[in-house]
UniProtKB/TrEMBL annotation:
Protein name, UniProt field: Dopamine receptor D1
CDD domains named in the record: 7tmA_DmOct-betaAR-like
Main subcellular localisation: membrane
Gene Ontology cellular component terms for the protein in this record: plasma membrane
Organism: Mytilus galloprovincialis (Mediterranean mussel)
Subcellular localization: Cell membrane
Keyword Transmembrane helix tagged: yes
Amino acid sequence: MCTAVAGNLLVIGSVVKFERLRSRVTNYFIVSLAFADILVAVLVMPFNASMEISEKWIFGSFMCDIFNSNDVLFSTSSILHICCISMDRYIAIMKPLKYERKMTKFRALSMIAVTWIASLLISYIPIHSQLYTTHENALVLENNPNACTFVVNRLYAIISSSVSFWIPCTIMVFVYIRIFIEARKQEKHIRSASVCSNKSNALYPGRNSRDISDRKTMKREHKAAKTLGIIMGVFILCFFPFFSWYLITSMCKNFCPYPPILGKILFWIGYSNSCLNPIIYAYYNREFRQAFKRLLKMKSQFDSYNFNHCSSGDTKDTANVPLVYLNGNGGPTSV
């Protein structure tokens, strides 16, 4: 839980702090994804952990509906955000010349809004209206305030799993296969163009600076696509087992016995995805890795400054402490 919160706060802080990251539309999706993952860690994991430890629900029937709604809401939102990122990368790789015109800030924010609205519609409305569960489970929850079982009927199982996983997963796999094929073609083109460019530069120095810039942009997009591929792979590993189990057990009910511990393990494997995304950014994306290092270094320097300032304040007269202002670059300067 702490890893998910700290890691995703680093992601959000990096985009907010550094203009280079903030200027890229893709990172709008990444910030919203990080926010969803933080909410999973803060509003879902602790309640589930409490239920596992105490072996009962201690927060009442109303909070049970809130907990189940939040679980579906934030997990679905996280998955749909990854789908949006894959579509963004698809446009960047497949139609690079039209990318800035097609993927505007307004369009990105609209996609994010649709993602959150769709997640709300699949979670809070059916769960609070009791449309999601069976009649038998509704009676159990009504008569036993210490129970918070998430038993769904067949219709909700099909609709929710399709919206939350199967449809987005199908889109992502199709999109990434297309991205991979196109990226391989472009890499071959880059290598051949690089050879021609070197020969041309020998004859006409500076003539192909635009081509070099285009190739750098293309390489950056390919690295972003590689990071997306890793995020997608981890996402499928985390959620495919859960949604397969969720759909199968909802369809065959009592005819598919399974050990209770299996469902608990699959839930937590799904939750772990919220912790892994920041680690993937830090390891595979150089810009985020550098931003994380700079943020952590700034925090370390700030803590050190506060410690030294407080320590000196215990032994020195405050009248002798120089005034400290910030210069134009944000650094301290004494007067």
